[in-house]
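Kindly go through one protein, given below as sequence and tokens. The question is how this chain folds according to its tokens.

***
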Amino acid sequence: MAMAADEVSKSLFMGTHPKNGEIGGVLVFYNPATKNKLIRRNIVPEQSVVSLASSGGYTYGGTTIFSNGKNESRKTAVFFRLRSNSPNGKIE
């Protein structure tokens, strides 16, 4: 599991790895003050979010192609970012 705290949105971002035999993963946004949470499954299809960092109003993430699946179909992991105050927004 990867985790990052964001000062701008005062929220936590968590990335997960699936259980054995499954592929993918989720990115979870949680605001402790409001208790709101948002779960985005397969933010990068068939990859797990294994690293997170927040800076300057953005949350940055890194993925892995190794997600417990027997047939990893992707050849390259991905580095992405999204605006921390808009976790349901577009991935850049």
About this structure: The longest strand covers residues 48-55. Residues 2-83 form one domain.
